[in-house]
Amino acid sequence: MKPQFIAGLADGQIVSSLFLVREKEIRTSLRSGKSWLELNLADRSGSIPAKMWDNFEALAKTFDCDDVVRVRGRVKIYNGQKELTLEQIVPTTASDYDLADFLPHTKHDVEKLYASLRGAIAGMKNPWLRQLLSSIVEDPLLAPRLKRAPAAMTMHHAYLGGLLEHVVSLVGLAAAVSAHYPELDRDLLLTGVVLHDIGKIEELRYVRSIDYSDQGRLLGHIMIGVRLFREKCSAIEGFPEPLAVLVEHLIISHHGTHEFGSPSLPQIPEAVMLHFIDDMDSKMAGIWATLEAGSADESQGNWTDRSPSLRRALLRAARYLTAAEALEAPVVGTRKE
Amino acid sequence: MKPQFIAGLADGQIVSSLFLVREKEIRTSLRSGKSWLELNLADRSGSIPAKMWDNFEALAKTFDCDDVVRVRGRVKIYNGQKELTLEQIVPTTASDYDLADFLPHTKHDVEKLYASLRGAIAGMKNPWLRQLLSSIVEDPLLAPRLKRAPAAMTMHHAYLGGLLEHVVSLVGLAAAVSAHYPELDRDLLLTGVVLHDIGKIEELRYVRSIDYSDQGRLLGHIMIGVRLFREKCSAIEGFPEPLAVLVEHLIISHHGTHEFGSPSLPQIPEAVMLHFIDDMDSKMAGIWATLEAGSADESQGNWTDRSPSLRRALLRAARYLTAAEALEAPVVGTRKE
Amino acid sequence: MKPQFIAGLADGQIVSSLFLVREKEIRTSLRSGKSWLELNLADRSGSIPAKMWDNFEALAKTFDCDDVVRVRGRVKIYNGQKELTLEQIVPTTASDYDLADFLPHTKHDVEKLYASLRGAIAGMKNPWLRQLLSSIVEDPLLAPRLKRAPAAMTMHHAYLGGLLEHVVSLVGLAAAVSAHYPELDRDLLLTGVVLHDIGKIEELRYVRSIDYSDQGRLLGHIMIGVRLFREKCSAIEGFPEPLAVLVEHLIISHHGTHEFGSPSLPQIPEAVMLHFIDDMDSKMAGIWATLEAGSADESQGNWTDRSPSLRRALLRAARYLTAAEALEAPVVGTRKE
Amino acid sequence: MKPQFIAGLADGQIVSSLFLVREKEIRTSLRSGKSWLELNLADRSGSIPAKMWDNFEALAKTFDCDDVVRVRGRVKIYNGQKELTLEQIVPTTASDYDLADFLPHTKHDVEKLYASLRGAIAGMKNPWLRQLLSSIVEDPLLAPRLKRAPAAMTMHHAYLGGLLEHVVSLVGLAAAVSAHYPELDRDLLLTGVVLHDIGKIEELRYVRSIDYSDQGRLLGHIMIGVRLFREKCSAIEGFPEPLAVLVEHLIISHHGTHEFGSPSLPQIPEAVMLHFIDDMDSKMAGIWATLEAGSADESQGNWTDRSPSLRRALLRAARYLTAAEALEAPVVGTRKE
Amino acid sequence: MKPQFIAGLADGQIVSSLFLVREKEIRTSLRSGKSWLELNLADRSGSIPAKMWDNFEALAKTFDCDDVVRVRGRVKIYNGQKELTLEQIVPTTASDYDLADFLPHTKHDVEKLYASLRGAIAGMKNPWLRQLLSSIVEDPLLAPRLKRAPAAMTMHHAYLGGLLEHVVSLVGLAAAVSAHYPELDRDLLLTGVVLHDIGKIEELRYVRSIDYSDQGRLLGHIMIGVRLFREKCSAIEGFPEPLAVLVEHLIISHHGTHEFGSPSLPQIPEAVMLHFIDDMDSKMAGIWATLEAGSADESQGNWTDRSPSLRRALLRAARYLTAAEALEAPVVGTRKE
Amino acid sequence: MKPQFIAGLADGQIVSSLFLVREKEIRTSLRSGKSWLELNLADRSGSIPAKMWDNFEALAKTFDCDDVVRVRGRVKIYNGQKELTLEQIVPTTASDYDLADFLPHTKHDVEKLYASLRGAIAGMKNPWLRQLLSSIVEDPLLAPRLKRAPAAMTMHHAYLGGLLEHVVSLVGLAAAVSAHYPELDRDLLLTGVVLHDIGKIEELRYVRSIDYSDQGRLLGHIMIGVRLFREKCSAIEGFPEPLAVLVEHLIISHHGTHEFGSPSLPQIPEAVMLHFIDDMDSKMAGIWATLEAGSADESQGNWTDRSPSLRRALLRAARYLTAAEALEAPVVGTRKE
Predict the structure, then answer these.
(1) Cα D109 to Cα D106: distance, rounded to the nearest angstrom
(2) Closest Cα of chain D to F192: distance in Å?
(3) Do residues F166 and F156 make contact, with C-beta atoms less than 8 angstroms apart?
(4) What is the pLDDT at residue F326?
(5) Nearest 5°: CA angle at E61, between E55 and E67?
(6) Cβ separation of A79 and C224 shorter than 8 Å?
(7) Inter-chain contact B244–A333, Cβ cutoff 8 Å?
(8) pTM greater than 0.95 (yes/no)
């Protein structure tokens, strides 16, 4: 872990640490002709503008956007915002840093999430499905990618470990709804939960930033996931084909409608339910993230910014219930006293 | 309870019981000129055609469709189907019968459902909301209607007691998701669960068949429910208006989108969640009903009829998994052996 | 009324008046390090940029955006645009000014509009509806708010008094179509006209700018209007409930479709007509506003800017008819000479 | 006019009159082998089934569906419905009858409608537009077709004279809205009113029934109307082309949106208004027709059949207001007494 | 091939041949009580009603709908329609008949179509793609199914051999557009043409009638096709994975939009073009079939029945151009003489 | 042709040439008060920023945006981008320059395109259609406009000569599909190809930039094209009206759906095909333009910018196939080695 994070920097502090370069530009003042190097530096805790005033020309050619650099400089407050005045910038290579320092990641303990998922799989009664899931989740090549993958580019769980966090949350929801509706095939639903987004470990790349891979854009995580599942499935001697068809059906129908990219619509109860809890958990994660952002800032009022997943702002209900809105007395409902 | 139900009638049996008249027509044979009275009789267990061949002209004027009549006759099998040959038909009045004999109703024990609902309300921590719900659920005028109301005309829970059954199922789901997402305000969600469809006790009438009331068609259950809630709310001294606004918001936004008739979109997490579990429980109830219909008939194959709520047929997965589809060997996935 | 309005300021003029602060920012020159205070000041006649160069630090903390301040300064022309150079800024309190000076308002005489509305109500034949409308329009708490409320945030009648102006225009249209279609119940239609948007006096707040109230966002003006109507209705001894249902139906269906937030669709002729004339008057108001904006500026050509309510530009037909478009002769229709 | 109309026939009456053949079929009884001729006969007052039992084979080949025939026979009541037993059927030619006897037509006096339209045109101030409209409305070839054309196949004004009735109703609405919104160019709007559907005199044929012509299906009444307008326009020496462009714009944009077949969207106020009043008058005509159908039949309850133009049933408000719905007392709003 | 086909049967002819049973019912006359067996029999040339009047009870239990039976009987004309009076019905087994006699099939010579497809593949320059297509089209298990598969359930090419006919037509179109747009990768486009619908050999079953398989309903032909392709691809040593990704992309995006079931949108020119020519050929095949149906029947007028693929009727242009529509002279365009 | 084009300017070069003024603004430095004239200059090869520092006040009033001016100045590199420092600016008149120097135009030889079109028309067999097309394409007033018109404002062929290029491409496609589907009436399809967009010579103006004419916005190219066609058609003695109706049908239905502005849907095979090939050629032209833009810039990666006509980015397949994406090894499909 690197020594200093942006969120912890204070005015006047001497900085010597690694940062990811998000933006890089040479700017020139109107008329004075004086130029400087303007950067935007980031790590997983946030981002900060940075300026270098002298001797930056040659230096600026040694690194690019999305590179990690080592800088030395000092924090100053400018127009009420922190920024860095740089003295030195040194390029690095991938071996010099830990990518996890620069990308946002889940607040949960990934190993605990992973253990929880393995526990749920171990408790399955259907031997074919249990063997199938184990062969994927415990595959030494896949396990590290499963622990690291985000669940989305934006919207919800858009950080390292987000996919695993989302899957483990769904494991809990699947258990709850299976208890509520005993007609559901619990093991089949759990299989859908674990595999529905597994293609995202290939669809989304996270090399200094989260992005789609070429294959991800051309095929999408549903197709990649089906292929991964089919490869693992064909390695299990005697796996019943009709059961495999149902699992594939769960994966390809989990978006619920053609409009959202599912080539088939859910046609068994477990597929309908998988779509429901997947949608519910994604939306709720987006809601908590929206409510959390700026929640400390009282001046923001009773409403959040627009939630990307719901496409509307949300009320901060606790604030609303305690604060008196009443700039003017309401015209209805006031005469009961 | 009346002595004989349609589902239990056997060939040759003498029938003397009450039935609801669904269809009534006088038919005449081509050329022979002979006329007869053709009825369709129903009770909560099913329906049966019935014919009266002689002396029916005056009799036929004494009753109408949707009336309950007492008939005497005999069962015969005609073209492989049971029908009644009638000897006598006597009109009745509402005091002669119990409507519950003629309308389908929930398989659950309504009093147990009601007790379960009261138990959930008793366990609430927010005193305002607990008092509000109690004042509605235990209102001596409302309680009997709540126990009897269907949840819908078609689609799901379309039978007497269906609304209460649906609400109690949602109480269970609300408890499960509140445990899963501790950020949710459990009491507020429960309030939404109990009140979201309360207007259906007025929107849907069930006088010998389930139908919309005039007011129900003009206003809809959301508006009726809001009014009922506001009347009860205003009877509670000091009920905080902001809290009342949130409850009203839950009721009016529970359909999730404008397209489905909600005048507002969910803007607090509990409203989003209420829409999710309401939609989920309605759809799942529709799925179980679709799977159950004709499930005993092996000749029907692996697929159900079209589900009205999902607008598609469903696979009977258990049958599919055990039966060999293979009229022809599949071309893919068969070479791994 | 304050002494000076922005629309009337001239180059070099000394200004000493009240303005609403729309934007407030401290800016710093690149390299020179020199900072200044940059404001955007507004009143109902328009807005103007303003700069204060010296001794602004302490002063800037005494007021916020949306406050009304008293300033002293001088007008100068800068890059072809008027701006203010400020010497002094003094905070004020609500008692120091008349809000009407800072918000745009209708060009019509509000008292005349109000009298016209009362006249129309007085002419109604149905005593229940006449009493209902009088009890709302002449309520001493509601009347001032009705006179002040805008009809919308944007789109049409988005200014103080806009709601009343819109309602009175609809009164005229309702009279015209009732004369044209004598089958219409004139009093019922008029009731819908007066009450359809009454909830906007609560939905929209206008505290230094027009905005939605929290309650307005959570419930919407339809729900608020219904509640206000029901409270007033229940205060009238013996008001027939079926008539009340029709009035509520008019209010809730006036947006015409679910998509536009109506929980019910119009199911009586008066509700269909109310939706038509409401939509017509809103669109026409948007059209006149779009045509008026920039109508004096000949250089703008034959087309207006995009109308927000129609989502398209409009032709200035008079200009088009008089001007020769003909940069090139058209290829069709020219050979008849 | 023919001597007997279907609506006036009584049981046992001897019939000798002309009717339009809607359906014609030879039917055979099961087993008995006996055949008969089954017809459905119609005139503008309604339709009636008719049977011929003997010697019909040769006769049946002398006429086809949509032909007008002279029949002789007797009315009998069969299963509660009137039907004709035929003794003779004689084919006719077009010169034997007046088509108006067989097609439904407007209840208004067509000549009065026509005079009213001419009066409105005579009152126009713009000489170009007045001359244009006169040259069309008074064209000796067009006038009779204008008086006879229906306004639509179904939905509204679907009868002879319906187009003229619709146009004259719009003339009234145009006058009303022009008075209400003085910014509107009254003559331009009136021109749009008269010409917007003029292509229907060619699109819709009415040769024993109302149907689309081939040209009507391939081009539609908008294109046909534009062509008719342009031909008349080019015959007026010096008609200003920009004015002609605006008139064409009114015709082609009057459906309001691309979805409803307008190649252009309304871009001048008069075009927006033309779409509004055209839509309003069509919908209102559909509403009156829906309410009128079955209005005499008290047994039908408070709701009409589904209106084709609104795609919903309508409440018969007068009945609803006078009848007590109350099979059960409502649960809300009843405690104020 | 069986000796007699339905299309060739004449009144009074003695029939002794095989037919597919489409419908089977025992009917009873009203009052007379006499029962008979009513069948609908079919072969690839059409269908015919059939009745057996005596001794059918035991016989009727020996076969079901969708079985092929051998019948003996005689043709009679009844109410102007041919029907069969049966004397004997004998069940058969699959070895007794050739399924091709009972299902509609392509008019083209399947072996010529197949040879044409192999020729196109042989001419490809890209060795990987050529080897891939050969390994599929010449697979001894797949080739017979490819020759027999229909291209759709309804809409277009809905008959045996329809898939191959459609693919070969697309081979021709692909060659034409590749010549027109030389930027296209001809071999890649051809690969998409051959493989895009290959999954239909599994999705659609044709056991006495064309229907979806269970797997086809759950997964769809896109998923089945991808799996078949991937299995064949992985059998080719060294097949470049990026090339395989492009081929998979072509298959999964060929429906063009999510709404039509494609999990990805076309993102290379060949995928866009594949969608265009696939859509074009399907629509044109539907158009020719619609125009052909009833084309011999002059009485049908100038318009076809509604085309299922275009959802509208089509004009028979040749008839329209030669026939005089002119029941009335048109009002426009006639005065130029 | 002017002597210097923007694409060819080099650092330090003295410039003396004509340019189109796209933007013109006087800017002032913060605090220093120093002002300058800032222009954006363009010709058909690209655009460049330009500044004039002294004595520009009077000069700036002598020209406007969209004027062509003669400038003298020098190229310098500023912040890595070329810009012009101006010494002199001289207004010009239309006779001083060739508009073709300032607007982008087709890369094809317009005269060859035109000859090719004439050749196709000369080869038609239907004499009426051949005469019709000749009379339009060879009209001395229309021919020059046909050669110059763009095919669209944006999206595809948005440059001078684009319409002719598009039409000639369609002529080739029409020949190809007519050969493939011999049922098509080749001459009718070709007529649709030549006339479908002919109204664009009037809809789009190109006076120093491509824009819609007023008439184009009010009527659209379909209506303008129909009128031009009808005028030419009526000049041909004896042109059969039914054939004219089919041609008009082709023009008005070529957008395929109401949503895209066609007042009629295609109802003959040639109209369906015209829509297909028109859509195909427009989309493919948009694709080639998208792929070409930035194709030389290797740093851009494997994906293009968003294509305006497809509303998505496209893969540069050749790059993708040759480059190794593999920043991480893929998880599926890699184990076959």
Answers:
(1) 8
(2) 15
(3) yes
(4) 44
(5) 115
(6) no
(7) yes
(8) no
